TrEMBL record:
MF terms in GO: hydrolase activity, acting on carbon-nitrogen (but not peptide) bonds, in linear amides; monoacylglycerol lipase activity
Organism classification: Bacteria, Pseudomonadati, Pseudomonadota, Betaproteobacteria, Burkholderiales
Keyword hit for Hydrolase: yes
InterPro entries (alphabetical): AB_hydrolase_1 (IPR000073), AB_hydrolase_fold (IPR029058), AB_hydrolase_sf (IPR050266), Pyrimidine_utilisation_RutD (IPR019913)
Organism: Variovorax paradoxus
GO biological process, one term: acylglycerol catabolic process
Originating gene: rutD
Name of the protein: Putative carbamate hydrolase RutD
EC numbers on record: 3.5.1.-
C-alpha cells in the first residue's frame, strides 16, 4: 500500500526528507516546516508505514531496513534523486540505515537524539512502556508518552497542549501489534561497527536532559562517524526539536546551508 507523504516548498529547492520517531507522524515536524520552506527547501514529510495515514499491518519481523526501503519508495514517488534526511530517534535510525544501504540517495544526515546500538537505560524505558501497554492498554501507554518526550517543567507549562496530544495519540493509536513491531525494530537496531562506512556529512543533535535516550548515545555517533557536526543543548528533552524549536532550527538551517552544494540538486 502506498505511504502517505506531503511535499512543501519550491519545486527546485534542495530536498529535505523528515522522518519521525516512534509515533511515525509527519505532523511531528510542524515546528520545522515553515523555517525549512522559508529557507528555500523542498520538504517531504510522511507518515511511516503502519501509522497515521499510512495504515498497514506490520509483522513481528519488521525492521529498520524495511523502513529505509519505504523512504526509497517515497524518494522514487517524488522524483527525488537524493535528499538531506532529518530523523528524530527511530527516524534517525532509518537515516543511518539508508546511508549504509543507498548512500547515493543521502546528501546529508541530521540525527536527533538517535543512537547506533542498544543501551540498557533505553531498554528499561521500553520495557516499562510495553508493560503499561500489556497490563493497562493503549490509553495508559499514551498517557505516559509525554514523560519520555518532554521535560517536566515544559509539560507543566504546556499542560493543555500535552493533554491534547495524548488524546490525539490515543485516537490514532496504530494498534498494539504494530506498536510492538515498531519498538522491536528499534530495539534490534545495531550499526555501531559500521558507522565508519557512512560518508554523508552529518549533524548529530541531542538534548542532555533526554530521559529516554542518553546524550552519550549521540556522542557515540559523533565519535564513530567520519564527517560530523555535534550540537548539544542542555535542556529540551527527547523532543527538543519541539520544546527548543528556535535553537534547533538555527543549528539545522546552518548545517544545511553549509553542506548544500550550489547548483547540484539534492
Amino acid at each position: 500500500m502506498p505511504l502517505h507523504y506531503e511535499v512543501h516548498g519550491p519545486a527546485d529547492g534542495e530536498a529535505v526528507l523528515l522522518s519521525s520517531g516512534l509515533g511515525g507522524s509527519a505532523a511531528f515536524w510542524q515546528p520545522q516546516l515553515g523555517a525549512l520552506v522559508e529557507a528555500g527547501h523542498r520538504v517531504i514529510a510522511y507518515d511511516q508505514r503502519g501509522t497515521g495515514r499510512s495504515p498497514a499491518a506490520l509483522d513481528a519481523g519488521y525492521a529498520i531496513a524495511d523502513m529505509a526501503r519505504d523512504v526509497v519508495q517515497i524518494l522514487d514517488a517524488t522524483a527525488t534523486p537524493r535528499c538531506h534526511l532529518v530523523g528524530h530517534a527511530l527516524g534517525g535510525l532509518v537515516g543511518l540505515q539508508l546511508a549504509l544501504d543507498e548512500p547515493a540517495r543521502v546528501a546529508s544526515l541530521v540525527l536527533v537524539n538517535a543512537w547506533s546500538k542498544p543501551n540498557a537505560h533505553s531498554a528499561r524505558c521500553f520495557d516499562a512502556r510495553l508493560a503499561l501497554l500489556d497490563a493497562c492498554g493503549p490509553r495508559a501507554y499514551v498517557e505516559a508518552q509525554p514523560i519520555f518526550l518532554y521535560p517536566a517543567a515544559w509539560c507543566a507549562e504546556h499542560a493543555q497542549r500535552v493533554a491534547d496530544e495524548v488524546d490525539h495519540a490515543f485516537a490514532h493509536f496504530p494498534g498494539e501489534a504494530n506498536m510492538r513491531a515498531r519498538i522491536g525494530a528499534l530495539r534490534a537496531f545495531d550499526v555501531d561497527a559500521r558507522l565508519g562506512a557512512i560518508t554523508a556529512p552529518t549533524l548529530v543533535a541531542a538534548a542532555m536532559d533526554d530521559a529516554l535516550v542518553p546524550w552519550t548515545c549521540s556522542q557515540r555517533l559523533a565519535d564513530g562517524l567520519k564527517d560530523v557536526t555535534l550540537h548539544f543543548l542542555p535542556h529540551g528533552g527527547h523532543a527538543h526539536s519541539v520544546t527548543e524549536a528556535a535553537a534547533f532550527n538555527r543549528s539545522l538551517l546552518d548545517f544545511l546551508a553549509r553542506v548544500s552544494a550550489p547548483g547540484v540538486p539534492a
